[in-house]
Amino acid sequence: MVIPDMVHARYEQLKKAINHHRTLYHVYDTQEISEAALDSLKKELSDIEAQYPDLVAPDSPSQRVAGKPLPQFNKVPHAVAQWSFNDAFSPDDMREFDARVKRFLASPDRSLGRKRGGDAPTYACELKIDGLKIVFTYEKGLLVTAATRGDGEVGEDVTQNIKTIESVPLSLSRPIDSIVEGEVWMSAKNLEELNTRRAALGEPPFANPRNAAAGSIRQLDPTVAAARKLDVFMYDVAKTSEQFPSTQMEELDYLRELGFKVNPHHALAKNIDEAIVYWESWKRKGRHQEYWIDGVVIKVNERAYEERLGYTGKAPRFAIAFKFPAEQATTVIEDIVFQVGRTGVVTPVAHLRPVSVAGSTVSRATLHNEDEIHRLDVRLGDTVVIQKAGDVIPEIVQVVQELRPKQSMSFAWPSRVAACGEDDRIERVPGQAAWRCVNPDSSERRRRAFEYFISKKALDVDGVGEKVAAALIDSGLVESFDDLFTLTEGDFLTLPGFAELSAKNAVDAIKKASKNVPLYRLLTGLSINHIGEEIARDIADHFGTMQKVRGATKEELLVIDGVGEVVADSIVWWFADTRNSAMLDRLLSHITFAKPEQKKTNLPLAGKTFVFTGTISTMSREEAVEKVRSLGGKVAGSVSAKTSYVVAGEDAGSKLEKARALGVTVLTEGMFAKLKSER
C-alpha cells in the first residue's frame, strides 16, 4: 500500500507528541494537555494505523501499556503481565467490538482442527474509575507487595503507602495465594481539602483526583499518603490458588468474599445493546459520584470465552474501555474567518477539521479577539486542543506545538472584514482587545442585533428563531426593533415555510412577548455597547423605569457598582443618538413593562459579587448564576478588587489567575455548593 508523504509525516509527529505527553502523565504525574486531549491524539494515530497497517512501528504508542517506573522506588517484576484496554468512543465502536468477539468465537480452532460454535457472550459492565491501577500480591492470605502497573512487565513497589489505605485488606478471609488488581482513587471532597491545604502552603494544586492519587501513592514518606485518605476498588483476579470463578460477575463476588472493596454499580448485560444502555445511564450521572468516572469497562462475562479470546499484543480481546464523550479533543485549524456581532464587534472564528467533543461534532470554535490569537499563537494548520462543556460555545485552549507545520506563519490580523458591508474597514476599540466595523449599521450587525432582541435573554419571542429573524431582515420587513410589533400574519405568509397556522402562532408569540417585559430584558436586547444581562439588571434595579434610565447622566450612572467610565459613556451616547431615541419611542408604544420585583432584605449573599470561571459540572452555569441571585448576590463577568468570590470549575483560566493576584477568595465547585447549603 502506498502511504502518502503527508500521512507519514503526520504519523511521525503524532508518535512523538503522544510519547512526550504520556510520559509526563504516566511517569511523572503531571500534564501539559488533558487526558481527553491525549486520548484524542491516540485515536487519530490509531485511525491512521488502521488505514495504513504497514505504518505500525514497534515504538508506536499503540504498542505500549504505560510508563517506566520511577527510579526512587524498588522495581517489582509482574508475575502476571499487565495490560491496558483498547478504547471505544461510540455505540458503533461497541457494536464493532461485539462483532469481533463473535467472529473470533466462531472462527476455526486450529488446535482441534474444527470450527467453533457460534457462541453469544453476555457482558459484565463496570465503572471505569479515574485513578491509579495497583497490582496486589497476597501469599497465604497476607499482603506481600503492591505495585504500580509500570510498563506492564515491571512496576514500582508502593506497598508501604498502599498499606495506609483503610479499604485495602492486609490479610484475606482465608490463607490463599492470589494476585488481584484494583484502582486507587481520591474523592472529590478530599481533593478539595488537599488543594486548600496546598494553596495555604503556596504549593500548586492537583489538577484532578487521578493526579492526586498517583502523587500520593508515589510519596516516599508513607505518613503523607496516610494523611490523604485514599480509597480503592478491586475489579480483577489475575491469579489465585483456588478455582477461578466461571464468570466476571462471579469474580466480583469472589473478590468481595475475600474481603476486598468492590464498586457496587456493576451490571450484567445480556447483549451489547444492554451494555450501551448501561453506558448511556452512567454518562449522565457519572459526574455526580464521589469518585471520578471517565467511562465504563465492558468485559465478556464468561471466563471460558475470555480464555478463548485471549490477548492482542497490548490489550485483551475480551474487554474494552467505553469512554464518555470527551469535553476536550484535538483537531486541526483549517481556516480563520470573522463574524460581526450585534454591537458591530468583529470576532475571529476558527474553522476546524470536524471532531466529536462532549457528544457532538464540532467544526467551529471562537478565538475571542486579536489578543487571544496572539496569546495562544494560533496559526493556520495548527493542531489545537478544544473544549466544550454543556452548552458552552467550543473554544480553543491550547496549541500542540509538537505538531505545528514547519512552514507555518503567524496569523496576520486584517484591516477589512467583508461582513461589515460596503465600508468594510475595521477599527480597534480604544482601551480594549475588541475590533468593530467602522460602519455602525451594516446588514450583518443589524441581523445579529435583531436575533438577540428576540432571543431568550431579551424579549424571548417563543417560536421565532434565528432563521426567521434573518428572513425578516433580508426581506425588508424589519428595519429596526420596533418593526417586529407591526408585523401581520400576511407578512409572515410571504416568508418561506410559513402557512396560516404558523403565521398566526408567530404573531401571537410577538403579542405575548410585548406584555409584562422586565426592564432589564429590554435594556439587554437593545444591543447597547458593553451592556450585557448583568449590568442591565443593575441599571434596572437602580433606576426602576426606562424614563429614568434614558435621562440618566454619566455621573448618575457611575454611582452604580459595576458601571465604569466606558459603560457610562456608551449608555449616555446611545440614548443621545436621535435615531435611537426615535426608535425607542416607537418601541415603547408597543410594550408594557412588568412591575419591578420587590427587593428582599437580609438575604445571605446580599452585597457579595461572584465571578464564575471554568466548567461547573454539577449544574449549568445559568443555574449557578440564578442561585446566587436568589440569595441576594450579584454575578459579574470580570474579576476586580470588588469581587467577593471567584468560583473556579474545571479548566479555569485567566480569571482564576487574576483572582489570586488580587487576593480574591477562590471557591471550588464543592466549596460553592457548601456555601449555598450553609446559608
Describe this structure in words.
The strands form 6 sheets. Strands 14, 15, 16, 17, 18, 19 and 20 form a 7-stranded antiparallel beta sheet that branches. It contains 24 helices and 24 strands. Residues 110-114 have low confidence and may be disordered. The protein starts with a helix and ends with a helix. With 679 residues, it is α+β, with helices and mostly antiparallel strands. It has 5 domains: 5-64, Orthogonal Bundle (Helix Hairpins); 76-323, 2-Layer Sandwich (D-amino Acid Aminotransferase, Chain A, domain 1), CATH 3.30.470.30; 328-428, OB fold (Dihydrolipoamide Acetyltransferase, E2P) (Beta Barrel), CATH 2.40.50.140; 463-588, 5' to 3' exonuclease, C-terminal subdomain (DNA polymerase, domain 1), CATH 1.10.150; 609-678, BRCT domain (Rossmann fold, 3-Layer(aba) Sandwich), CATH 3.40.50.
Cα-based radius of gyration, to the nearest Å: 30 Å
Sheet with most strands: 7 strands, antiparallel
Per CATH, the class of the largest domain reads: Alpha Beta
CATH superfamily of the largest domain: DNA ligase/mRNA capping enzyme
Total of domains: 5
Relative helix content: 25-40%
Looking at the structure, the CATH topology of the largest domain is D-amino Acid Aminotransferase, Chain A, domain 1
Distance between the termini: 67 Å
Strand count:
24
Any idea what the CATH architecture of the largest domain is?
Answer: 2-Layer Sandwich
Spans where pLDDT lies below 50 across 5 or more residues:
110-114
Name the structural class.
alpha+beta
Helix tally equals 24
The shape is elongated
Strand content: 15-25%
Task: Output mean pLDDT.
Answer: 86
